[in-house]
Design goal:
Layout lengths: L9 H26 L16 H21 L3 H13 L4 H13 L2 H19 L1 H26 L25 H17 L5 H22 L4 H31 L16
Length: 273
């Protein structure tokens, strides 16, 4: 007759449980390593709304509605010209210097140089080619959308001959929306996305929209746009950024899985808190 089965010592049970926990905790780590091999750049995910495509379409529709109303409503442009004329009659040397400087800095030539220099610096020092590409696409998106709306609406610029003091006379059917303002808005988004999670994020979140508003004021001060031109520029650039960020978050993970895409180590220039 056999006796009762021997009871396993508590120490053996504890060792077995510890071994089971070790194996279980090691499995997710192995899965993570397989999903993101060493040395492969991680995707740069941008903030985006859930229904980004729908929002982009709605914002674009709002821009078109404003543009068509401005273009075809009798007396619309004449009423808006009063704002430009009032500013034109109250020019001051210091304000004129600021407005003319912004006219150059946020223009096509200097703007492209800023984007190129920023993207190059990000590639070399702040996160690699993927992040540099994302920054460049977001910053450029405002201009691209702006040019499309300019072609569709084809609104004439304010007549410089009617202004008291035209600072940079321009003519043509490319008044709506403002390319300078669209670029300022899109660049502000790109810089904020870059600064997210760093000690510079709050400063950028305040400075970027403030800079865009100042650029909008400068376009009216100089007399090259109507108020509705600069107002619609915020919607136009917003639509572009919404769509680009949504598309980027779909495409970026695929880009980072492709072989041969270099990455750069993080830079202390934007160090975390």
């Amino acid at each position: 007759m056999t006796g009762p089965a021997p009871v396993e010592p508590a120490a053996c049970v504890a060792r077995g449980a510890a071994a089971d926990l070790t194996v279980a905790s090691a499995q997710p780590a192995a899965h993570t390593d397989a999903a993101h091999p060493a040395g492969q750049p991680q995707p740069w995910t941008l903030p985006h709304v859930r229904h980004w495509l729908l929002l982009g379409i709605l914002l674009s529709a709002a821009v078109l509605a404003i543009g068509l109303a401005a273009q075809f409503t009798p007396g619309f442009s004449a009423a808006e010209l009063g704002v430009d004329q009032d500013l034109s009659r109250h020019h001051a040397a210091a304000l004129t210097a600021v407005a003319m400087a912004l006219n150059v800095v946020f223009g096509p030539v200097a703007g492209l140089a800023l984007i190129g220099a920023g993207a190059l610096g990000i590639w070399l020092f702040r996160g690699g080619l993927v992040k540099a590409t994302g920054f460049g696409l977001v910053a450029l998106s405002g201009w691209v959308a702006c040019e499309l709306f300019k072609i569709i609406i084809a609104r004439q610029r304010p007549n410089p001959a009617l202004l008291f003091d035209p600072l940079a006379p321009e003519t043509g059917s490319n008044s709506f929306p403002s390319g300078h303002v669209c670029f300022a808005v899109a660049l502000g988004f790109a810089l904020f996305f870059l600064a997210r999670g760093t000690r510079w994020s709050t400063v950028t979140a305040v400075a970027a929209p403030a800079a865009a508003l100042i650029v909008a004021w400068s376009r009216l001060y100089i007399g090259v746009h109507y108020p509705s031109d600069v107002a619609a520029s915020f919607l136009s650039a917003g639509a572009a950024v919404v769509v680009v960020t949504g598309l980027w978050n779909v495409a970026a993970p695929r880009l980072t899985r492709r072989p041969g895409i270099p990455s750069a180590p993080p830079s202390p220039l934007l160090e975390r808190k």
